[in-house]
Fold this sequence. Notes:
- The chain has 28 helices and 25 strands.
- With 941 residues, it is of the alpha/beta class.
- The strands form 8 sheets. Strands 5, 6, 7, 8, 9, 12, 13, 14, 17 and 18 form a 10-stranded mixed beta sheet that branches. Strands 19-20-21 form a 3-stranded antiparallel beta sheet. It has a two-stranded antiparallel ribbon with strand order 1-2.
- The longest helix has 29 residues, at 451-479.
Amino acid sequence: MTETVATGSKGAKRGKRGLTVERVFTTEGVHPYDEVNWEKRDVVMTNWRDGSINFEQRGVEFPGFWSVNATNIVASKYFRGAVGSPQRENSLKQLIDRVVKTYVRAGTENGYFATGADAEIFEHELTWMLLHQVFSFNSPVWFNVGTTSKQQVSACFILAVDDNMDSILNWYKEEGLIFKGGSGAGLNLSRIRSSKELLSSGGTASGPVSFMRGADASAGTIKSGGATRRAAKMVVLDVDHPDVEEFIQTKAREEEKIKVLRDAGFDMDLSGADIHSVQYQNANNSVRVNDEFMHAVESGGEFGLRARLTGEVIETVDAKKLFRSMAQAAWECADPGLQYDSTINDWHTCPESGRISASNPCSEYMHLDNSSCNLASLNLLKFLKDDGMFDAELFVKAVEFVITAMDISICFADFPTEPIGDTTRKFRQLGIGYANLGALLMATGHAYDSDGGRALAAAITSLMTGTSYRRSAELAGIVGAYEGYARNAEAHQRVMRKHAAANDAIRTLHANDAAMRGLATTEWQRGIEIGAKNGWRNAQASVLAPTGTIGFMMDCDTTGIEPDFSLVKFKKLVGGGSMQIVNQTVPRALKALGYQDEQIEAIVEYIAQHGHVVDAPGLRPEHYEVFDCAVGERSIRPMGHVRMMAAVQPFISGAISKTVNMPEAATVEEIEEIYFEGWKLGLKALAIYRDNCKVGQPLSTAKKSEAKADVEPEKVVEYKPVRKRLPKKRPSQTLSFTVGGAEGYLHAGSYPDDGLGEIFVKLGKQGSTLAGVMDAFSMSISVGLQYGIPLEFYVSKFSNLRFEPAGMTDDPDIRIATSVLDYLFRRLALDYLPYEKRAQLGIFTAEERTKQVESGYGSSSAPELESVDLEELRSTVESRRAETEPHRPVEPEAAHSTAELMDLHLGKANDAPLCMTCGTKMRPAGSCYVCEGCGATSGCS
């Protein structure tokens, strides 16, 4: 697209330049719909827990290459009109036309295009890109645009609240309106006086934490969009607020309350009947720290907490102690996260119009108070050519189309409140981003946690944002700069130069990232030159959002900036049913790494059976890291996630939605290190989640399906197990333990050759029901052990079971247990199983975990294979094919999502909520969760 002089486009002034649009993806004379094979499908979505039908629409029309999952989610979430009525949309054509034609009509009316022919080409190009899953707008666009509803296009909102009751009550109202519309909001409460300050009447102020209770109750009552999930919101408090310590502890204290109530028998699961008695659970909390505070932490100095009205220091605290309290609270309940205020405002394009004080709930949008941002994300894997090169020139063209459409949307958009609408129209904040980065890195043979992977990600991000701002500067010459630009021109240009300088500092390692950085350099230079003349159309261009639901719409393997979740996937089939498949990016990655077809087939077979690549036949150990995922045998280290965020942050206008997952064994000191390094590396925001830190987190109860062997009826051989009784005199040990405050004793008896043969568990008062049940349970386990059932079988079945009592233990090797049985069988594993078997189960002593950290990550004892016998590989493939197929059917009762599938492979349940719509276990997407079953998200996008 280029600029030209408009000669007759409706709404354009005579002599005003308009866009001349050139065809990139489409062919003249051929409509995009005519290039695609369409098919009719039936969409029937059920809740697998009770069999009830959540959604049903038959005969919907979609392209044949769209997956069943994408079809289901789009038909159920985005088609408008009452189900069963003639007005109901039933084709993807209708959905795309409804949105695209609205955009093109608004663009024409507001003078974006030089001629009507340019508008038509723009319409066809957008249609082709959406049809072929090259990009997607955020969900509100699909919900609202082109309908009789308000034309809300934004998913991200920031509110403001002042230190008076009218403003506080208005905060409750505005938040409720946004939640009702299906979106989320964030705000900073630091203007509200602390509980240590006086009111004008002479009384003491309530403080922001007290007002958080009312807002939390409101959010819990007004379910988001009328659905069953909770509202998404972010609450921020500045580190120099006198109530910051109380704010830090709010959710940690409530987590302790949950433990006590569950111990007392109350239903405290996430959707439990009694969870409503717990406060502050409907928001993400973040502390806004500045450089002054972080330097005080670094030097071990003191830091002043300041009165809200006068700014005077009313209390001095130990900075390092306060920082430790943040890490301690995050260790206990995952909150608060940190937002790095000085870094955020150093990259602010509009400081003369106000500081950036808050973010949206997922932390990717950060700009002025009372503002909004609409999002769109590109599918990066669509730009990877067969030769392994990223098509940077095509990517630039795609970014031009998308950012132009996003800006047009502000011309006709509606907003939940007038202040938000006013600010957004004046500053026109956009949030272009991408999905499938993790899949792209794997497909090109890059490890996510590697210099090469970070260089490629940085170059792509720089090219995307540089192109966006260049197009924004061109649009400013056509339809004008954003209204707030004149006041902020110097600051905006300064931030553009900072982006360009960061681009120059990218250390390229391969042809792909070198080519993209070179093109990005050109884009930044052109953008700055044009912007110096025209200004810019948009105060903000890019963010990295979770891309949960729209990621499924584009059939992406990975969301946002995330690595691949796992190497095995849960795939829905046409006509119902599902199967396990190996991530289709794996063969592509192996090809890029130089493996031959026979080797690739053998490795894929191995992954299908084991869920990981460790010891896969023919796979060189130095390539293991390419296949590291978010969960699994080789999960990416927490600092690997932080370094990836740091690599791309200098090229994002806003911030990055991402939670750094940490293992259950992570320490408070390690969380401190993550938070401190996030500041050092220039991040704008950072949040962590430590596995199993939340008591009220429901886990999947899926169990492994057992294969049923076919038996010939005419020739049956019966094998009976033989009980091996313990001798009269046998070695034994007795262990006292405490789990969640409940005390008990474990007696374990062994055979003389050291094999476990019996257990007795003392828990509860003599004669009580609990004591009787534990006696019977101990007897059944003991008899099973004596009949030859391996201890590791019991460990795999009973570890990670979740029920009360649960919580902290007095065992240095097992600090937290999800139940008494979880503790007992992990303890038995440590005492009686060899290291190799425990390693497969993921059970280690504290000393072993320490040594693993000290010795580095990802080392393998597998020998490097200098050469591979292809005939031997063929034989291996054929023999394995006789035993198992790489695409193995999954029993419906075994797994219902990729997250549950990985639980089966790992032999343990990972923390993730269950979808409140369809009951499927969700998986992480940025700082939110997304459901593969129905596309629901726990966030705002």
